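Internal ticket - ligand job 328, adenosine-5'-triphosphate:
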Amino acid sequence: MAKTIKKIGVMTSGGDSPGMNAAIRSVVRACAYHNIECFGIYRGYEGMIEGDFVKMDARSVKGIINKGGTILKSARSKEFRTKEGREKAHQQLVKAGIEAFVVIGGDGSFTGAMIFNQEFNFPVMGIPGTIDNDIFGTTHTLGYDTALNTVVEVIDKIRDTASSHNRLFFVEVMGRDVGHIALNVGIGAGAEEILIPEEDLGLERLLESLRRSKKSGKSSSIVVVAEGDKIGKNVFELKDYVEENMTEYEVRVSVLGHMQRGGAPSCFDRVLASRMGVKAVESLIDGHSNFMVGLKNDVIDVTPFDQAVKGKSKINTELLRVSDIMSI
Ligand code: ATP
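stdout (structure tokens):
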């Protein structure tokens, strides 16, 4: 029989993403529903070390489901990477009577949680919050769907100006290690080419494709480039390369940057966050720990932290073929 938990902490850690507030709301309300006290931990592990906690009830999370960012703030903590730092964090939790916590963040945050759990046998559950969708054990991380919609909307706007001036645009989107965002927005926004970390398209093929595009009568072209694309050239280098080799094109670059992380979460992310928060709290109540909550085949399931951290999130290769066919 699992020990009854009376106080649960919730925090956001690492980079922020839309849907984190909806997940905080869900954890707080699931706690209220099960008569468990809930404490917000400010600024991730940094705030945990400092004992920066606030008691939260169902009403303290009103009006946040539609807000981007995180009301609990997020941070990266160097001190938590040390044994002394984690000891301080543990002492603060014990002092406040917090017996378990839910961390909303990326794989770094889960690694920290896993080590903390091993050292202090402290119950912890994770909710994946990052726009990159680069976490194993879930088809969707919180914020990913919102980011896709944000980026598609921006590329639609870029296309308006591209087609008015017969221009070629290289649009850089987030995705250092995985091309989920680039691949999906590329197809969704009708890009001519999509450059991702998983595949080296080759510069020659890129030129060929752009020449073909021009010949077929297209007046403008959009190439979506993930930050970590395998060709290894950034968007400015790509612009120079294409301009040197294809004088018929006027090339422009747009680096979307942090705007991709902001904004109101999509309905999908709000629902996902609500489901994940409930699952995280109920897993702790059932005596489970050291798992990340995730979405698999539309079912909310759990994956052990070590698998979530070590595993690699893979792109859907069918999308590569679809993109090829669409850019004819
Ligand atoms: P993002 O996807 O936005 O990078 P993340 O959760 O991976 O999010 P990180 O900065 O890697 O972000 O990790 C967040 C925090 O987790 C770190 O600042 C640190 O406090 C803690 N952490 C990460 N790795 C470890 C580790 N090996 N040991 C202890 N704590 C860690």
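Auto-summary: Residues 13-15, 45, 76-77, 80-81, 105-109, 111-112, 115, 130 surround adenosine-5'-triphosphate (CB under 6 Å). The longest strand covers residues 167-173.
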